[in-house]
Design brief:
This protein is about 45% helix and about 10% strand. The chain is an alpha+beta fold and about 300 residues long. The structure holds 6-diazenyl-5-OXO-L-norleucine.
């Protein structure tokens, strides 16, 4: 077994010394205040051991990482019916691209790009009694941690600047692929993205996807097949037009967010989360991707 703690500490030191730390997202104004010198990494192994370095206990905006958990909740609620409204193909385009949505008659390429996540948000708004509260409780329950919360300043900041998401939601509505009012779906979506979690909390929340659908408390959240489908989705679509690059360099299913977080996992082995707020040109954490590449190279632990 590799010395995980020593490896994480080494990766942390290398990240702290990196000359290029990327650019913090500013299109959601509230995210622009985050210091790009933050860096956290946390690993949770299948046998329940934890290893961490740097700012792994500090919370940050999970943003698009929430799309995976929204998808898993929607799968729990309506199962395969999801795929009548969203496809399962990589888009090869940025997360907020609209052109394909119009060409493909309002059926988003996959649930991890913004338009697909809006359809999933619509499903949750239709099927949960108190959508925002119930979804937050779902994540708290998965993580076994009641302290997890929304950052309402971030949700509001995106609400007043999220013009492309308004455009996507209106386009979906025009194709009759949104059942609830545009404003209700967007309010839910902006809040799910504005949930704050640490690397440590993310590894707990995503544990069930590395454990055949059974979460940390051993409760069955999804079937083994459903967990497999979500992992496939992360591998092929988790990094938008950089999904190929992440599979090529890192070799794990994973998901990024513009808050600078990345979660990745090796089924039956581990979940790992990194946080470095500076992004690369494709909107994925620059040092997060580099660090995970080094992690799978050093440990020789990847799906390939
Ligand atoms: O919808 C948006 O633009 C943001 N709330 C989330 C985007 C995001 O995290 C893309 N991920 N890399």
């Amino acid at each position: 077994m590799p010395d995980f703690q020593a490896i994480l500490e080494g990766l942390y030191r290398e990240a702290m010394n990196a000359s290029d730390k990327g650019t913090v997202a500013s299109y959601i104004p509230e995210l622009a205040y985050i210091d790009k010198n933050n860096f956290g990494i946390h690993l949770k192994t299948a046998d329940g051991k934890d290893y961490g370095a740097g700012d792994y206990k500090k919370v940050f905006s999970i943003q698009s990482i929430s799309k995976v958990l929204a998808l898993s909740k929607a799968m729990e609620l309506i199962g395969e019916n999801i795929w009548k409204r969203v496809d399962v193909e990589p888009s090869g385009h940025p997360f907020n691209q609209l052109a394909l949505l119009e060409i493909e008659n309002g059926i988003p390429r996959n649930p991890l790009i913004n338009s697909g996540a809006l359809v999933i948000a619509d499903i949750l708004v239709s099927n949960l009694q108190n959508p925002k509260e119930d979804f937050l409780n779902y994540i708290r329950d998965l993580s076994g941690d009641d302290t997890i919360n929304f950052n309402t300043d971030v949700a509001h900041s995106e609400k007043v600047t999220g013009f492309k998401n308004y455009a996507a939601a209106n386009l979906l509505k025009s194709f009759k692929n949104l059942n609830n009012p545009v404003d209700d779906v967007l309010d839910f979506y902006f809040h799910q993205c504005a949930i704050e979690m640490s690397c440590q909390q993310l590894t707990k929340a995503f544990f069930f996807l590395s454990n055949k659908g059974n979460c940390l408390s051993n409760k069955i959240r999804l079937t083994k097949t459903q967990a497999k489908r979500i992992n496939a989705m992360m591998l092929t679509c988790g990094f938008y037009d950089e999904a190929g690059e992440f599979a090529f360099e890192v070799g794990l299913p994973g998901k990024s967010g513009v808050g600078g977080g990345i979660v990745a996992l090796l089924p039956d082995n581990f979940v790992i989360a990194t946080w470095s707020p500076g992004l690369n040109i494709k909107g994925n954490s620059l040092l997060g991707m580099k660090t995970l590449e080094k992690f799978t190279t050093k440990t020789k632990l990847s799906i390939f």
